[in-house]
Design a protein that fits this description.
The structure holds three protein chains of three kinds.
Chain A: H1 22-57, H2 63-67, E1 70-71, E2 76-77, H3 80-111, H4 116-130, H5 133-147, H6 154-178, H7 182-190, H8 195-223, H9 227-230, H10 250-260, H11 264-296
Antiparallel strand pairs in A: 1-2
Helix pairs in contact in A: 1-11, 3-6, 3-8, 4-6, 5-6, 6-8, 7-8, 8-11, 10-11
Chain B: H1 2-16, H2 18-41, H3 43-48, E1 52-53, E2 58-59, H4 62-93, H5 96-111, H6 114-132, H7 140-164, H8 168-176, H9 181-192, H10 194-210, H11 213-218, H12 236-243, H13 249-279
Antiparallel strand pairs in B: 1-2
Helix pairs in contact in B: 2-13, 4-7, 4-10, 5-7, 6-7, 7-10, 8-9, 10-13, 12-13
Chain C: E1 23-34, E2 37-48, E3 52-56, H1 63-70, E4 80-88, E5 91-92, H2 100-106, E6 107-110, H3 121-131, H4 137-150, H5 154-157, H6 170-182, E7 188-192, H7 200-213, E8 218-223, H8 226-232, E9 235-240, E10 243-249, H9 250-255, H10 260-266
The chains are: A mainly alpha, B mainly alpha, C alpha/beta.
Chain lengths: ~300, ~280, ~270
Amino acid sequence: MSHAPSNAPGSASDRVPGSAPRRIRREGGIMVAIVKAAAAITIVILVLVIGYILVRGVPVMTPAFLLGSPEKMGREGGIFPSIVGTVVLTALSVVIAAPLGIGTAVFLTEYTREGTFSRIVRFGTESLAGIPSIIFGLFGFLFFVIQLGMGWSILSGSLTLAAMMLPTIVRTSEEALRAVPDPYREISFALGGSRWQTVISLILPSAMPGIVTGVILAIGRAIGETAAVIFTAGSSLGLPKSVFDPVRTLPVHFFLLAREGISMRNAYGTAATLLIAVLLVNFAAYYVMNRVSARRAR
Amino acid sequence: MSRNERAAEIILTVIGLSSATILGLIILFIFSEGAPAFAKVGVWKLITGLKWAPGKNVFGILPMIAGSLAVTLGALVVGLPLGLGSAIYLSEFASKKTASLMKPTVELLAGIPSVVFGFIGLTALVPFIRDRLGGPGFSVLASSVVLGVMILPTMTSISYDALRAVPQSYREGMLAVGATPWQTVRMAVLPAARSGILAAGILSMGRAAGETMAVIMVAGNATIVPGSLLDPVRTMTSNIALEMGYAAGLHRSALFATGVVLFVVIGILNIVARAAVRGRGS
Amino acid sequence: MTNAGRHDERSTTYPPAADGPEYKVVARDLSSFYGDVQALKSLDLKVRRNSLLTIMGPTASGKTTFLRTLNRLNDRVVSARHTGQLLLDGQDVYGVKVDLAGLRRRVGMVFALPTPLPLSVYENVAYGPRKSGIRSGARLDEIVERALTSAAVFDEVKDRLSSPASKLSGGQQQRVALARVLAVEPEVILLDEPTSGLDPLSTLRIEELLRQLQERYTIVLVTHNPVQAARVQGEIAFFYMGELVETGPAREIFTRPKDKRTEDYVTGKFG
C-alpha cells in the first residue's frame, strides 16, 4: 500500500518550494478524512451487525436449544431439525456444484482457446452470476419441485442451490487454475504427458488451495440463502429422514420467526446459530488460503 | 491412454455447457409461466398498470417497478459513497496492515445472510424511523438503508479492484509534479478507474434490485407508488415472494410475469456493467 | 487445444527420405510462421545420429522456433504454423497418425529455466515414466537412479530424493531437469539455452555432460553465446534472422567462416 508523502518536491509555486498551497492541502486533508471515515463506518457496521445478533442470540444457544426439537411451530423448543437440514442441504449442494464448477473451469482454462464455444460457456456462467436468488427459487420450484416431480425436498433445494453456487465456483477455480505457472504445462507436455494427465496430476493439485477456498466461500453464501430455498425445500419443521423430505433450514426458520414476531427469543437464537456457522466457514476459508500460501512461499 | 483422453474431453465439454444449459432452462420456464399473464392482460397494461388487485383479477405492476426503483436508488445513495470511500481509503491511503485487516472484514460483511440485515432493520431501524421521523416505519428509507449496507461489500471490492488496476506510474507521475495525495487520487487515479467504478455501481444496483428477504422485512409491502421516503413500498421481488405461496392461475402467472420483468431489468443492468468495463478498456 | 499439426499443404510435395539413416533429424524447406511473422526461412538442416549439434545465433533467429516445431510444442501456440517437412528417422513428425505423447518422449526438451515441478526430486524425475504408464515402484526407483546418474547429479541428491526439488541450487535443478528428460529414454535431446541462468561452474559441468551424452543420444543445443558454441566443440549451425547461414565443425566455423555474417558474429561484432 503506497504511503504518499504529503509534501512532494518540485511544486510550481514561488512560495517555499516543495509545498502545495495550504488551501489545497487542507481540502485534500478533508477528503482523506472523509474516505477514512467511510472505511471506519464500514467496519463499525460489521461489528455492530455481528454484535447485535450474537449478544442477544448466544445466550439462547443452549444444548437444549441446539439439540432439541421445535415445539409450537418453532416458537418454542429447539432447532435441531433445522441444523440438520441446513447441513445436509448445503453438503449436497456442494457435492453437486463443485465437480460441475471445477470441471467448467478446467474446461475453460485447459481445453479451449478463446472462440465461440468458450464465449458461450462464459456468457452462461456470467449471466447466471447476476440472476437474483428469487428467480432461482422460482425456477427450482417449476423445474425440480413440479416438472421433475421431486416435490419440496432437500434434493430440490440442493439442485437449486448448486445452480446458484456454480458461477462463484467457476470464477474462483478459473482464477486458481490460471495462477498455476504455464511452464508446468509445457514441461509436462514435453515429457509426454497428455492434457488430462497434466491437469489431474499437476495443475489441479497446484491450484487446489485456491479452488478449495472458493468452494468454502460458496458454501458460506449458500448457508444463508433463503429465497431460493423456501420455494424448493419447503418450510416444514420435521426432522428430514431422506433427501426427498422437505426441510426448514436455519435462515428460513429465522425469517419465519422474525416475520411472525412472536418468539423473538428463538429468532435471536436461530440467527446467532446461523451467523456463527457463516463466520466459521469464512474463517475456514482464510485458514486454508493463508496456511497453504505460507507453506508455498518458503 | 488416448481413449481416456477422449473421454475426458467429452465429459468436460458437457460439464462446460452446464451453465448455459441452466440459463436456458431458467429463461424457458420463467418466461413460459409468465406468458399467459402477458397474453391475457397485455404487456403494456401489465407493466404500466397502477393497480395490483389479484382478488379482482387486476394486475398492474407499475407500483412494484416504482418500488424497486426507489429502494435501489436509495440503496445507491447509502452504499455508493460508503463503498467507494472505503475502497479509495483501502487502495490509496491505508497502510499494509490496515488493509490486510480491512479486506477480510469487507468479505465477511458480504457473507452475512440477507435475512440478518433484514432482521436488524426490522427490530432496530423500523421502530426508530417510526418514532423519530413518522410514518409506519416500514418505508423506502428503511429499505434503502438496509439494502445500502448490503451492497456495501460489492461496491467496495469491485471499486477496489478497479483502483488497484490503475498503474502505479499514474500516481508517481502526479506526485513527481507536486500534487498532494488527494489531488493524485482525484485527478489521476479516479478518472482512470472510472469504468470499473461505474461497473461496481451498476452491479450493486443489480444486487439491490434482486434482493428479496431483507426488503420484505422492512419495506411495508403496500402496493402503492411511494410518494415519500417514509411511505411503505413493495418491490417486484417481494411481490413475488409474498404471494407465490397461495397464488393460482392468472394470479400466479402474473407473479411470474413480474419475475420476467425483474429478470430483464437486471439482465440489462448486468450487460451494461460488462460493457462499461470492456468498452473503456480496463 | 492442440492444433494437431498446423501444416499448410501448399504446392510442394516432398519425395520420400533420400537422406541416409545416419541422419536422425532432417528439416527440408522448413518455414515457420507466427501469424504473419516468419520465424524460419526455408530451413534445410540435417542432424547426424548420436552427435552434438549446436545451433547458435542472436535472439530471434528462429533457434527456439526450430526446437518447438520439432517436438510440436508449438502446437499449443495458436498463431504458429509452418510449411515444409520435418523428419524424425525418416518419418514426418506431423504425419496423420503421429502419437504426440510418444513423439515428445522420443524428442525430449530441457528449457532455459530449470523450473522444477512442485514435487520432490524423485517425483520430478519419475514424472515422465509415470505418465507413460510405469507403475512399479522398483522399476521407477531404478529409472530415477539411472537418470540422475547419467545427469551427473545423483551423488548430490541421493540423500534428498524426497525433499522438494525447488530447494536445490540452480545448477542442480537444471541437471535434474535433464534427468527428467533422460528418464523417459529419449532418442533426441533438445536444450534451449540451458545454461543461460547458471553460474560458470555449473555451465561447464553441463557442457561436459552433453559431450559425454552424445554417444548415446542425438543432441541439439541452442545458444546465443558463440563462446559456448566454441567450447562445446560439436557441429555448429549458425542461424541468423530465421535463416540457416552456415554449418560446419566448430573449428571451421570459428577459424574459417565462409559467410561474412558468421564471421561478424563469431568475432563479436553483434549478437
